[in-house]
Amino acid sequence: MRQDSPKFESNNPVDFVIVGAGAAGGVIAKELSTAGFNVVVLEQGPYLKESDFDHDEIKITRQHALTNDHKRQPNTFRKTEKQTAKLQPAVGYGRVVGGGTVHFTGNYWRFHEIDFVEASRLGPIAGTGFADWPITYADLEPYYTKVEWEIGVSGLAGSSPFDPWRSKPYPVPPLPVKSSGILAERGARKLGWHAYPAPMAILSKPHNGRNACVHCGFCISFGCEVGAKSSSLATVIRVAEKTGRCEIRPESYVRKIETDKSGRATGVIYYDAKGVETLQKAKAVVVCANGAETPRLLLMSKSNLFPHGLANSSGVVGRHLMFNGGASAGGLFEHPLNEYKSVVVTRVIHDFYNSDPARGFYGGGGIDTRMGRAPIGFGLSGLPKDAPTWGSEYKRMLRDYYTRTTFATGHTTSLPLATNNISLDPTVKDAWGLPAVRVTYRDHADDMKIRRFFRDRCKELLEAAGASKVWTSPVEEQQRAVHLLGTCRMGNDPKASVINKDHRAHDVPNLFISDGSSFVTSGRGQPTCTIQALAFRAADQIIRLAKSGDIDSSI
Ligand SMILES: Cc1cc2nc3c(=O)[nH]c(=O)nc-3n(C[C@H](O)[C@H](O)[C@H](O)COP(=O)(O)OP(=O)(O)OC[C@H]3O[C@@H](n4cnc5c(N)ncnc54)[C@H](O)[C@@H]3O)c2cc1C
Ligand code: SF4
Questions:
Q1: What are the pLDDT digits (tens) for 154-171?
Q2: Does the Cβ of 224 fall within 6 Å of ligand 2?
Q3: 189 to each of 183, 329, 349, how far by Cα in Å?
Q4: Quick one: which H or E segment has residue 376?
Q5: What is the full DSSP assignment across 91-127?
Q6: What is the mean pLDDT of residues 349-371?
Q7: Does ligand 2 lie within 6 Å of residue 203's CB atom?
Q8: Is the CB of 343 under 6 A from ligand 2?
Q9: Whose CA is closest to atom 17 on ligand 1?
């Protein structure tokens, strides 16, 4: 935290209070504060610095140094609304200033034009809430360009024949190709597919005063010690604080959005690090707490005026939860690949991005090649399923496979179902006594089919690339996710959506929502580029409304 960052009085309404300093929250904070507004950002997690990050795999993956800890904030899970939910981890996200962008992999795909209008092109899918977005790719394109340049994304414009049009190239060139990337190129060439340099929110060259990647290899799940990963923390949050108008208040866990008798938001109540409750007053509230915590907060904010939860006259808050699907194949190669080095992904294949009616089911996605596991993770889940898990043969296999394995991984669509949702668990509470996130989720039959389709393409790719052994696992229904999308969807119809295309809640004129919950459809995986482009666009709309006196006459 900057020494000179302002300290606002909680009793004195600031222009905007933002809940959550993650992918979207960081962007909104930067845009509103640089536009001249006073902003307080309340983040439940700690404010860590680059010097706090290290390569301790136990601390990161087992002790939740950067992510939500299910012991303190439990989840419950059930497949259908008829079942009683069981206690089990179901949602994972970054719980620090910077949110999920601190530890994420950095895959940074734009949506394609079709993603915004797919429902009208393909027609309705029975039993789902499959719908067009109220905005198009053309509406968002300037913001995709803006986010790529502001945070720093490496890539090569025009290298994929499937990419949507763009108004500007990437600010920095692609990262150096890894062995897995060369193999993806080799396999794709043989199959007539196209492997192209992965767009990554990681700097290949210095940009905006930040360092380039030093290829340390502890990337997925870890914070970057040199600031090369383009997290909100390393980018927009710094700019926001430099304005002198943005206070980042860490370890501030918001439990309720307060409203007055007229139904306007007046601020938020949060617990500080000592558990003391404070009301931070604000003229407007922007919720950026992600696709699980944003609907939870709205549901916890019910009152006499909003008996079903805040901004929930439609009954849609929490519904249409989408995870993105995945499937992969492992491949063992003759020569060392040394995939444990550097960033996770360097090549992507989008030949199967579009849904193809000839397949007989809905869905599409992309494939990348990666190891994606730190050493302990590889020891626990990197070997084929039939490998021993103990003894000398296990050790021999670890030695043999660790340097010579790569995985081809498919990232796929999820359909929006009203029955897949986030709600408040009626009995399980977190360490603060608040109701736990209850996840109800069952993959649609087409989501399962597209995952199996991608698993088979992943296997084909590794075989074509020359793997001496290829293995796959059965595709099972998902019960846990880190892509949390769709639970406060945007739309033109207040009866069927939570926010309008300006990200303003239909029911509450000074409440805005921007994060993964705003999505109408899931895209094909890697949602963060779109989450942050939407956040830049949302901020523009909020600034326009605020300056015209439409949010609060005193802002
Ligand atoms: C291991 C891993 C790898 C990933 N890799 C990729 C990738 O390569 N590409 C990609 O596109 N996506 C990736 N993701 C997903 C990505 O991290 C998320 O999609 C993205 O961060 C979501 O952005 P958001 O703004 O919706 O929310 P978040 O980034 O989750 O931000 C929400 C913030 O709000 C805070 N918050 C929540 N509730 C409260 C409350 N009540 N009070 C105060 N603060 C609160 C949270 O602590 C968090 O900091 C990955 C995720 C994981 C776990
Ligand atoms: S691989 Fe590069 S971007 Fe990733 S954590 Fe290491 S230095 Fe940072």
A1: 999 999 999 999 999 999
A2: yes
A3: 10, 18, 11
A4: helix 375-381
A5: B--B-STTGGGTTS--B-PPPPHHHHHHHHHH---TT
A6: 97
A7: no
A8: yes
A9: 100
